[in-house]
Amino acid sequence: MLHWLFFCILKTYKFGCKVIYIVLKLQIFPLFFSLCFDLCNSSLSAKSREHVGQKKVGSITK
């Protein structure tokens, strides 16, 4: 009886840990993904601004 109870508690604990791990993973992964997306987006917009700036400078000098 005691062994079975211990097994049930352990099983529930493992399941609880899995749930917590999945929830944390689901919360951290989108945050990480959005940070990567923001970094990529900002670097792309900086490059496009630089490109537009060069075009404007080029058109002014001509």
Write the layout of secondary structure elements.
Elements: H1 2-61
Describe what you observe in this structure.
The protein has one domain (1-62). The longest helix is centred in the middle third of the chain and has 60 residues, at 2-61. Helix content is 97%, strand content 0%. It is an all-alpha fold. It has one helix and no strands. The chain starts with a helix and ends with a helix.
Summarize this entry quickly.
The protein has 62 residues and is an all-alpha fold. The protein has 1 helix and no strands.
Which features would summarize this protein structure in a list?
single chain, 62 residues, mainly alpha, 0% strand, rod-shaped
Beta content comes to: under 5%
Order of helices and strands: H
Count of helix runs:
1
**What radius of gyration results from the CA coordinates?**
27 Å
Question: Residue share in helices?
Answer: over 70%
Structural classification:
mainly alpha
Shape: rod-shaped
